[in-house]
Amino acid sequence: MTGGNMGYTGADGLGPLETLGHIVINLPAEQRIFLTGQLSALTLAFLFRWHLPTSQCGPILRHSIASLLGICLSIYCFGWLTLFLIGELVLGYLLLLLADYRRVHVYTLFLTMGYLTLFHIQRYLYPAQDQMDFTVPLMMLTQKISRVAFEFHDGHIQTEKPLSPLQRRLAIRTMPSTLSYVSYTLGFLGLLAGPVCSYNDYQIFIHGNEKTGNPNVAVSRKLSLCCLLLAAHLVLSDRFSVSEDPDRSVFSQYLDLYLMAASRRPKYYFAWTLADAINNAAGFGYNGISEDGTERWDLLSNLDIVKIETATSFKMFIDNWNIQTAVWLKEVCYDRSPYNPLLSTFMLSAVWHGVHPGYYLTFLTAVPITVAARHVRRTIRPWFQGHVLNRTVYDVITWLCTQIAMSYTVGPFMLLELGLSLKLYRSLSFSLHILPILLIMVLHNTTRPQSIEKSNHTTIACKKNTNQMKKGT
To answer: Where is the chain membrane-spanning (predicted)?
Structure first.
């Protein structure tokens, strides 16, 4: 979901259903199409699970129906532009069939990113307010096609560097059939907002190779949360902005930035939670049993709202925001890039998001902040781990710093334009560009305090001995 104002325009005296209908009707066209499309996908997901269970239907039928519904949903949302989705799919599959498997993943990544960038440029030059952003499903498709190519490469190449356990599990050993490839890439479950899953996990779902539980409780909870998130978005959307008053204090400017960033998050929370619920409704996303005995339906979860809002480090925030995209970036770039994996990954993420200068400024800003946060955690954090009070103080301070740093970083992402973004940073004296660089210079050669490390090990050992003595008595 991008662009537009989803704010409620009023419907006094109407009942709940009438109010909901009034809200949907008065949404901008882009968001109305997205919402009705996802609600249709939710309904279809329930029907898919009820009427096409793996016990009664084979994978060919399930693949065929998922593909057909995905194409129909795409036609409803994007009309004839669906041909461009199919076009990218065909190009990706031809590469998989014809290219050297030792390089197919590289070729596919460049092809899909180039294809996506062309449409990003078209969207940038000719923005359309009366239709849903076509680059969103293209962004999902780019992840899926490139991910299949990387996992296919891992399943067919012998390298000096062994695959990680995760890479071995995700590796595709046989050529995907045309039907299964189309179902995975254009299936209705993740067409509009993801989340992107691995090809093997999708095949397990279609074939019913693993026992799953009942998703009804999980779906109900996520849909209830969606209602709250949608209400929060309607109330908070575009309510806060950065003041242009040159006399405002730095504290007020940072507060404006934080409120602006926080007020825009419910939009993403809503879209990703609803997308997760759609997959769960179809029976996809089961992830075993938790420690308390309840079923986990978080295999495809794209965020953890509590961890995001209480994040005490830049990494913790990023790791719980758009999780499946982070997994894709790690799989195709961070774990394989021979040149500065961190910078390469952030730049790939910027290109994937679009061509607006604000995206590039955001991800370039994130690089020194991430590196500085690593140094702080390595050298300063140990000093605060001795006592509960110290840890609490450290967590409060790092939470505040994380929220400030993240709000500063995503400012250009929200403003998009280079001039506005530079004006924002200039008004803050580029403070969170300069400070991280200074921290890196100061802490670069600083080592972890050995005495504190030994003390922590001694404390842990004493606790283990105490527990063993208790068990013995």
So the answer is: 64-97, 104-125, 181-202, 358-376, 396-416, 428-446
